[in-house]
Amino acid sequence: MSTCPSGHDSASDDYCDVCGLPIPATPVEEVAQQPSRDAAPAEPDAGATACPNCQATNPPNALFCEACGYDFTTGSMPRPFTPPTIDSILDLGSGGSGPSGTPEAKPAAPADAPIAPPLEDGWVAEVWIDPDWYADQESTDPLPSAGVPTVVQLRTTSILVGRTSRSRGIHPDIDLVADNGISRRHCQLTTDGTRWWVEDLGSSNGTYLGTIGSLPKDPLPAGEKREIGPDGRVYLGAWTRLVVRRATPGEF
Questions:
Q1: pTM of the model as a whole
Q2: How many Å separate Cα 7 from the centre of its chain?
């Protein structure tokens, strides 16, 4: 058994098993002069470093606290130990191995990967800035130029309408980010392949369903699906109007 300069007992005689400091060779004649284990402990080294986290005494040239792992170089607190979960253990046990024999990481699914069944027929949604709806809402936001409708391809049987939020992981199929009157998750469009329904998702300003020639006055009850008729128009936000229709040749 060897003793390092910090006073630790080490089974290794070259580097301390506890703190890693090199252990100098001890001449045989000095062994007899070393104090016994029953002797009073020596005074701590004047250059010893006290850990600011746990107050343990460390060698002057220590990089980390021997007691708690505090980093003397960067001042970083010790990272708490996180025990492995059952799922992570099972994943490592059941996963495949790479060329080096280590478990292969499972590829993560894209955040915006659709989970609804794909549509067999071509459908689109016309997104238009409606000046009449804007005037009815009395919004303080300036009205953009109406122009021609934007045509959005509908590829699945469930379509989220709202505004993108990367921080919350919200990526709507119909992104109406320019209209501040629209919630992040505003409403949902669903279909059986022939008919379409709209459902408000608890939006701040409501979802309205009207027809050609008339503006709706009452919002849809949140969580209740309403069928969009052949002449149906979905109104939402400060100026947005949606029309769902079958795609024409060249639009899909």
A1: 0.55
A2: 48
Which residues partner with 22 through β-bridges? 15
Name the more confident of 251 and 200.
200
**What tokens does 177 get?**
């980010």
User: Domains in the chain and their CATH numbers?
Assistant: 118-246 (2.60.200.20)
Enumerate the H helices of the chain as residue ranges: 28-31, 86-94, 131-137
132-157 pLDDT, tens digit per residue, is: 999 999 999 999 998 899 999 999 99
- From 192, 200, 194, select the one nearest 226 (Cα to Cα): 200
Percent over 90 (pLDDT), the chain: 47
Q: Which of 7-21, 77-91, 115-129, 172-186 has the highest average model confidence (pLDDT)?
A: 172-186
Give residue 142's identity as a one-letter amino acid code: P
Question: For strand 158-162 and strand 174-175, is the pairing parallel, antiparallel, or unpaired?
Answer: parallel
- Averaged confidence pLDDT in the chain: 79
3-state helix, strand, coil split of the chain in percent (to 5) is 10, 30, 60
Q: E-strand spans in the chain?
A: 2-3, 9-10, 49-50, 57-58, 118-129, 150-156, 158-162, 174-175, 185-191, 196-200, 207-211, 225-228, 232-236, 240-246
75: left (phi over 0), alpha (psi -120 to 50) or beta: left
